[in-house]
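User: I've been trying to design a sequence by hand for this structure and keep getting stuck. Would you show me what you'd pick, starting by listing the structure so we're on the same page?

Assistant: Good idea, let's start from the same input. This is the structure you sent:
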């Protein structure tokens, strides 16, 4: 919804997600569907790091260099929380990722009680929760997300109606987006004058 809204406003924007479809991302997805017990937490973490390195180099950095807004569904904050919940050090995860990952301007954390989230997976999406989505594990994940206190993190209740959440997101970013669009228009006008 955010992507479509920005496209209508003539913003240059790309939408991406993690895990990606790289060989590492495919392995992560396969593990999540039932083979997670076959791999050690550190090995699993390395898959996320390798997948993200490819994503950053091939998608995120080029898009940012081309003056795009980049919207990501999950990023290294998810790794901090989910891999931290299975025993890795969240501080070290953050430190390693920020050696090569662009730090985002805004992170939206949609907060929801794990039990409600699991019910949505089972009923709303008609899916069986995967091995990342067990209630006890999600409680630990939520605690780590709650411990993240960077000033670019915006927490929004995830229980509300999707339209209301979307409106709240737009309220947060409207000034930033308007500034970006004006800046982009000035940049394009300047370039056109140079090449005319």
């Amino acid at each position: 919804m955010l992507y479509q809204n920005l496209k209508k406003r003539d913003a240059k924007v790309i939408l991406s997600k993690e895990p990606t479809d790289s060989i590492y991302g495919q392995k992560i997805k396969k593990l999540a569907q039932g083979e997670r017990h076959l791999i050690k937490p550190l090995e699993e973490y390395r898959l996320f790091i390798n997948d993200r390195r490819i994503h950053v180099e091939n998608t995120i950095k080029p898009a940012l260099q081309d003056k795009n807004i980049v919207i990501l569904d999950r990023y290294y904050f998810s790794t901090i929380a989910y891999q931290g919940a299975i025993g890795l050090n969240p501080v070290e995860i953050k430190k390693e990722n920020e050696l090569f990952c662009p730090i985002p301007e805004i992170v939206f954390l949609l907060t929801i009680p794990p039990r409600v989230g699991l019910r949505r997976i089972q009923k709303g999406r008609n899916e069986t929760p995967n091995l990342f989505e067990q209630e006890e594990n999600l409680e630990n994940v939520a605690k780590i997300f709650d411990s993240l206190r960077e000033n670019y993190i915006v927490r929004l209740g995830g229980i509300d109606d999707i339209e209301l959440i979307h409106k709240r997101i737009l309220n947060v970013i409207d000034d930033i987006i308007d500034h970006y669009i004006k800046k982009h228009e000035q940049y394009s006008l300047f370039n056109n004058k140079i090449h005319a």
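That's my pick for every position. To get oriented when you compare it with your attempt: The longest strand covers residues 13-17. The chain has one domain: 2-195.
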